[in-house]
Write a structure and sequence with these properties.
Bound molecules: FE2/S2 (inorganic) cluster, fe (ii) ion
Number of domains of chain B: 2
CATH superfamily of the largest domain in chain B: Naphthalene 1,2-dioxygenase Alpha Subunit, Chain A, domain 1
Radius of gyration of chain B: 23 Å
Number of strands of chain B: 20
Number of domains of chain A: 1
Helix content of chain A: 40-55%
Oligomer: heterodimer
Largest sheet of chain A: none
Shape of chain A: globular
Largest sheet of chain B: 8 strands, antiparallel
Number of helices of chain B: 11
Distance between the termini of chain A: 21 Å
Number of helices of chain A: 5
Radius of gyration of chain A: 14 Å
Chain lengths: ~110, ~400
């Protein structure tokens, strides 16, 4: 297997398989099925490293992120979309008292973030 | 109508400014009656100006967008011709009526080849200005007058980069006249700079006005958005104005001492707030929006008759110089295609893209909360147990839309 994350970020390796997904649709599907425990562990691992992560990514150009950083980029996007579940919804995988999320179609949802 | 008492003016300071609105309850029948729905198709959706897109969606000559409009049983091609002009046509071939461009969903964009749109049935081709260009075996028709067989035109006008159509053969008013005071009030916002868009849509099992009314007031914000937008527990909704069938108001969020953003919101939102590109720009709001330039301004949200609710942000509150809008397209009396679209200035760095993903997720989640009441409301109203609904002062935009609805319908 190739190196997934840059050296400094190997502590995030356990989250790559589930969360480092290239488009919003896939990341949403992950959010809808993640457990409380999944959310908690992902958030606790990533939040303290958020500044370092984003600073690292910012040495690259949007739309042109090289292979060695793309996994970290996708992980960061998943974090941005998952964080409200931890901070606002007590780690529930749905927005409380909401419309069914699967019924929302996102026209842009399958665009790859690169 | 008798002048409102002082007590009433205190209770409903905005509503009483517009005596034509009244202060009593509004009738429920327009939200559930199938016969009225049939009438709406003719009296409203074939008479008014309807938003079908942004100029940025078809930036180059030859670019097109197809918009399905079920309520008028049509599909509309909006296309930029060689001269850069935007034209609208029924998506229908003048030979035997086949669709010219096949849609992928309610909104489809694409680019014509050599400015030609070709019907796949017998290969008649039309140019982007609507003229019939080519007909295979033309000599075998009985003196075909190609000049009379161009695409069926639809009135199309633009305002501030928004593309509107009007399905009436001879619209009573041009677009700017139709928009009344809104045209001026909302001109000058840098809409064209927010070119990155995220759109969500769903089919709601409710009448289009049930959905639209739910998006036309801020009264629900502290309850419905308690989870996603806790910072909006105390809002101030003011600056109401009515312009004919349209209306507007603004939402401010007076700061609460000691209220701290959550860590991810503080970090990601903070990145947008401190960037020159995405940060607060009260200076870019049109003059009459947030006239006092209050820094706790959240957004202005105008309601355009019949089916558009726009929101203009200035980078305060929701981070990012964003604007967004909702549209409500009737499919039947009890079914509505809702589309919510967020527009951001383009991210320049990966971290800005991540921060925008966060803001966008909060918007989307808030919309999941908004849409959570609509089907229940409609199902309950269909019981017929409620003939009228009472409205408070902050629901004035619903009152104005409802009044305009009656006026257009003539009932
Ligand atoms: S129907 Fe279009 S070419 Fe015949
Ligand atoms: Fe809302």
């Amino acid at each position: 297997m190739m190196a997934l994350l840059p050296e400094k970020f190997v502590s995030l390796n356990p989250f790559v398989e589930s969360w480092a997904l290239p488009n919003e649709l896939q990341r949403s599907q992950q959010r809808w099925s993640a457990s409380e425990e999944d959310y908690r562990r992902f958030y606790d691992a990533m939040m303290p490293m958020l500044d370092e992560t984003l600073d690292y990514l910012d040495q690259y150009e949007i739309g042109n992120i090289p292979e060695e950083a793309i996994v970290l980029y996708h992980l960061s996007l998943a974090f941005a979309e998952a964080a409200p579940h931890v901070e606002l919804y007590e780690c529930a995988n749905q927005v409380p008292n909401s419309f069914e999320a699967v019924r929302f179609e996102a026209a842009h949802g399958e665009q790859i973030d690169s | 109508m008798a002048a409102a008492s002082d007590e009433l003016k205190r209770a409903m300071p905005y509503t009483t400014r517009y005596p034509e609105l009244g202060t009593g309850p509004i009738d429920v029948a327009p939200l559930i009656d199938p016969d009225l729905f049939e009438l709406e198709k003719e009296k409203i959706f074939r008479k008014t100006w309807l938003l079908v897109g942004r100029e940025e969606e078809i930036p180059e000559p030859g670019d097109y967008k197809v918009r399905q409009i079920d309520v008028a049983s049509t599909s509309v091609i909006v296309v930029r011709d060689k001269t850069g002009k935007i034209n609208a046509f029924h998506n229908l071939c003048t030979h035997r009526g086949n669709k010219i461009i096949q849609e992928e969903g309610a909104q489809t964009t694409g680019r014509t080849r050599s400015h030609l749109m070709t019907c796949r049935f017998h290969a008649w081709s039309f140019s982007t200005d609507g003229k019939l260009h080519g007909v295979p075996k033309e000599e075998n028709f009985n003196k075909l007058d190609k000049n009379c067989l161009g695409l069926k035109t639809i009135h199309c006008e633009q305002w501030q980069g928004f593309i509107f159509i009007n399905l009436d053969k001879t619209p009573e008013k041009n677009l700017v006249e139709y928009l009344e005071g809104m045209a001026d009030q909302f001109a000058g916002y840098p809409y064209h700079e927010s070119t990155v868009s995220y759109r969500y849509s769903t089919v709601l099992n409710c009448n289009w006005k049930v959905a639209m009314y739910a998006f036309s007031e801020g009264y629900h914000v502290p309850t419905i958005h308690a989870a996603t937008l806790p910072s909006l527990a105390k809002i101030e909704q003011i600056d109401y104005q009515c312009f004919g069938p349209h209306s507007t108001s603004a939402l401010y969020v007076p700061p609460v001492a000691g209220m701290q953003p959550t860590p991810a919101t503080g970090n990601l939102g903070g990145r947008l707030v401190t960037s020159k590109q995405h940060g607060p720009h009260l200076d870019l709001l049109p003059e009459k929006i947030n006239p006092e330039r209050r820094t706790d301004f959240q957004f202005e949200f105008p309601v355009f008759f019949p089916n558009l609710v726009l929101h203009l942000g200035a980078g305060n509150g929701y981070p990012g110089m964003t604007y967004f809008h909702h549209q409500f397209w009737p499919l039947s009396v009890g079914q509505t295609l809702w589309e919510g679209t967020n527009y951001f200035r383009p991210p320049k760095t990966p971290s800005e893209r991540v921060a925008i993903a966060h803001t966008n997720a909060l918007h989307r989640n808030a919309w999941l909360e908004d849409t959570s009441t609509m089907e229940d409301t409609y199902a309950a109203l269909c019981s017929g147990a409620l003939d009228e609904m009472v409205l408070m002062d902050e629901e004035i935009m619903i009152r104005n839309t409802h009044r305009a609805w009656h006026e257009y319908m003539g009932v």
